[in-house]
Amino acid sequence: MLATSARILRLTCLSPKPVSVLLCNRGFCAPPVTEATFEIASPFKLHRLDSGPKTEVTLTKDDTLKYFKDMVIIRRMETVVANLYKEKSIRGFCHLYSGQEACCVGMEAGMKRGDCVISSYRTHGWTYTRGVSVLGVMSELTGRASGCVHGKGGSMHMYCENFFGGNGIVGAQGPLGAGIAFALKYRKTDLVCLALYGDGAANQGQIFESYNLAQLWNLPILFVCENNGYGMGTPSDRAAASTEYYTRGDYIPGIWVDGMDVLAVRAATQFALDHVRSGKGPMVMEAATYRYHGHSVSDPGTSYRTREEIAEVRAKRDPIGLFKDRILSSGLLTSEELKVRLTTRMIDQYSTNQSSVLI
To answer: What is d(CA 246, CA 242) in angstroms, rounded to the nearest whole number?
Structure first.
């Protein structure tokens, strides 16, 4: 069953030819455009900040391919996970990240090597961007020893170096993240901890207690609310008197970013981390995003929202589709070149290790 479902992710182009030969055969021998400049579509919103990130960002071709590849892999991986769950190859709780790919990919792109992350239990995408292979994630989900925690953690509890995993207690990553940040400061490093939680956890008292200690002790932590609009099956505006989560820190500066725009997320993350890293104290960031599936795989996700709402987001705000459109319209890559380069990069990445069995 695992092998059957995993074929969805298998690459179909296995040509041994180098990228340059493949591209020249398709008429791409002209001097290449190596970078492009993009305007951030949705303005940042600021709280207790005099200025925010630049609204114009530059993207190299290599970064373009990496961000696009990572988002596509996460989307395909989650599709396979959903199928395996239906086949009962994956059991227990399982929360999918489809639709939120720009958050983990964009934040990872804005981080420094060695920065730490702690999150809630929706962590398959984060586990991958933190360095665990697709094989490591899928094996963990199916309870195999080759999983990132030897099959003992499952969907909700994945860990690796500098990734303190998914936490099953709602909001627990707040105080735990503050503790990690305290350790980073105690060791006199210039590293930062990102503590991620959802809009459902944003009302937890321990989140506010963490804000207080982080500000009081000037801890190097970035609190990130991944606001996908629903806490389980409850819309955020029915659960929170204030849905401006980036202002919830009160005395802590905050920033709002469009979590469906990978470039905006990268820019906001870099800005926020520079602020924290400079010794100015913690910051709160809200990434407005959307999940396509229900709260967990057992939740159809259509009893509290309409299928039309989901379809509209997929059509107009999908992070992969939006990024692809911007790439093509900028002239940085053509559709054919993107396809060839993406396929070849994925082959290069996985052909020499075990994870090729799942890609």
So the answer is: 10
**What is the reported pTM?**
0.88
Comparing 16-30, 183-197, 300-314, the range with the smallest average pLDDT is 16-30
By 3-state DSSP, what share of the chain in percent is helix, strand and coil, each rounded to 5?
45, 15, 40
pLDDT band at 33 (very low <50, low <70, confident <90, very high): confident
Those residues with Cβ within 8 angstroms of residue 79's Cβ, 6 or more apart along the chain or in another chain: 8, 98
Q: Which of 28, 33, 40, 34 is nearest to 60 (CA)?
A: 34
Residue owning tokens 């299928």: 307
Give Cβ neighbours of residue 4 (< 8 Å, ≥ 6 apart): none
Q: Using an 8 Å Cβ cutoff, are 302 and 241 in contact?
A: no
Q: What's the number of CA atoms in the CB half-sphere (13 Å) around residue 310?
A: 15
Q: How far apart are CA 157 and CA 355, in angstroms?
A: 20
* The amino acid at 22: L
pLDDT in tens, 6-15: 454 554 334 4
